[in-house]
Amino acid sequence: MSVALESGRADTKIIPILKERGQREVFCGLTGIIWLHRKIQDAFFLVVGSRTCAHLIQSAAGVMIFAEPRFATAIIDERDLAGLADANEELDRVVKRLLERRPDIKLLFLVGSCPSEVIKLDLSRAAQRLSAQFTPSVRVLNYSGSGIETTFTQGEDACLASLVPTLSSAPADAPTTLMIVGTLADVVEDQWTRLFNEMGVHNVSYFPPRRSTELPRIGPNTRYLLAQPFLADTARALEERGAQRLPAPFPLGVEGTTEWLRAAANMFGVSTDTFDAVTMPKRERALRALQRQRPQLEGKRIFFFPDSQLEIPIARFLSRELGMLLTEVGTPFLHKQHLAEEMAMMPAGVQISEGQHVENQIDRCRSAKPDLVVCGLGLANPLEAEGMTTKWAIELVFTPIQGYDQAADLAELFARPLSRHLRLVA
Q1: Under CATH, which architecture does the 29-150 domain have?
Q2: Is the CB of residue 182 less than 8 Å from the CB of residue 226?
C-alpha cells in the first residue's frame, strides 16, 4: 500500500488530493453490460467467464421475465480449465448456436472476464476469426470487463473504445459535427436533441447510438463532448482518429448542464441571446424543482467512497446547488484534464482522494460522522449496521441523471435515504 498527498490547482484554489493504493471494494466492468445492452438495441454481449460471472450479471440486471435479454455467459468449466476441451472450438460452437437462435443480432461483443484472462484465452483473435466468418451479417468485437484492475464503469469505457476503430472516416472537408460520447437514456438523448435543434445545432450524433448500424463518422472536423467522466480510453481513441474534445463540466445539475451546453453553443457560433432563449425556461424550471429538495439536503455532511468516477461532478452539484457539505470525495481515478472544469468549481480545501484503501477510508468515514455516505453495495450494509445512512453508488449509473429535467431526480436520489432515516428514528 502506498499513500501520497499532492495538490491540484483549480483557478486560485488549492485542492488537496490524497492518493491511496491498497484493498479495493468495487464491482467489475461486467456490470456495464446492464446499461449498454439497453442502449445498443441490436447488440449482444457474450461474457466468456465463470458461473460467478453469470450470477453477477443476473443479479445486477434483476430477473428479466417479460423480455429475453441481449446478454449471456459462455461458461468456462472444469474441462476448459483442465485443457480437456479446446476453448476456442467451444466458443465458436456457442457463438454459432447463438446467432442461429437470434438472427436480430448485428453486433456481438465477446466480453473478457477474470477467468478468461487467467487461462489466457485470446478473445481478440477469436473476435477477428468470428467476424470474418459472419460478416457482413454480424460484426464481432471484444473488450475486457475483468475486475482485476478496473472498476465497474470502466466496462463501458472498454466497450466504446473497442467500437472507435470501426467508425467510418469523415472526409477532411466535411462540415463540423458534434458527437455526444457516453451511454445515455433515450429520454435524455431526446431532450438534448431538441435543445440543440432549437439552438440551430443540427450536426449532432450520439456514441453509442441506439443501433449499431447508425455509428457516427469521425474525422478532424469532429468535436465531442463527454457525457460521462469515466471514458478516458474512449476519449484517447477518438482523438487518435482526429476528434477534438470540447472542455466542459459534466451535465449534472442546472449549472453543469448549462456550461456543458454552452461549450457546444460557443463552438457552433450560437449567440448568447439564442442560447438564453432556448435554455432559460428549462433552467428556471429545474431550479424551482431543486428548491423543493434543498431543505432536506442543505447543511448535511456527505462522504463519497470511490466507486463510479461520477463522484467529483456529483459532489460539485450537491455542494453548489443544494448546499451540502463535502467531508471527503473519493474517486477510483482522477483524470485531471477531463475534470479540470469540475475541479475549478469545487469548494476550496475539500478533501479529494484518488484510489482506494478501503480500511483507511472506513476509518476516516467513521471519524467524519457524515449524515450520508455514498458507497458500493458491499459497504452499504455494514455501514448501515453501524448506524450510518448510505446511498448506493451503482444507482447513479443505472438512473437517468443528466440534463435539466433530471436535476431534481438526481437530488432526490440523495434526499430519499435521509428521509428514510428520519422515518426510522421517529
Answers
A1: 3-Layer(aba) Sandwich (3.40)
A2: yes
Q: Which residues contact 291 (CB under 8 A, 6 or more apart)?
A: none
Buried b (16+ CB within 10 A) or exposed e, 241-272: bebebbebbbbbbbbbbbbbbbbbbeebebee
Query: Is residue 363 exposed (0-12), middle (13-18) or buried (19+ Cβ within 10 Å)?
Result: exposed
Domain 177-276 has CATH 3.40.50.1000: no
By DSSP bridging, strand 2-10 and strand 13-21 are antiparallel
Q: Say whether pTM exceeds 0.85.
A: yes
Task: For residues 368 and 379, give the distance between their C-alpha atoms in angstroms, rounded to a whole number.
Answer: 16
3-state secondary structure of 12: coil
Structural domain spans, the chain: 2-25+293-425, 29-150, 177-276
Query: CATH: 3.40.50.10190, 3.40.50.150, 3.40.50.1980, 3.30.420.40. Which one for 2-25+293-425?
Result: 3.40.50.1980
C-alpha cell at 203: 450536426
Evaluated on CA atoms 383, 387, 388, 394, the torsion sign reads positive
Burial class (CB in 10 A: 0-12, 13-18, 19+), 349: exposed
Q: Are 62 and 37 in contact (CB under 8 A)?
A: no
Longest distance between any two alpha carbons in the chain, whole Å: 70
State residue 58 phi and psi, 5-degree precision.
Answer: -65, -40
**What is the distance between the alpha carbons of residues 331 and 104, in angstroms, rounded to a whole number?**
39
2-25+293-425 and 29-150: same fold? yes
Give per-10-residue mean pLDDT for the chain (426 aa).
Answer: 44 73 80 91 93 83 63 75 66 93 95 85 93 94 85 93 96 94 96 97 96 95 97 98 97 98 97 98 97 95 95 98 97 95 93 93 96 93 94 91 97 94 74
Query: How far apart (Å, rounded) are the C-alpha atoms in residues 223 and 336?
Result: 20
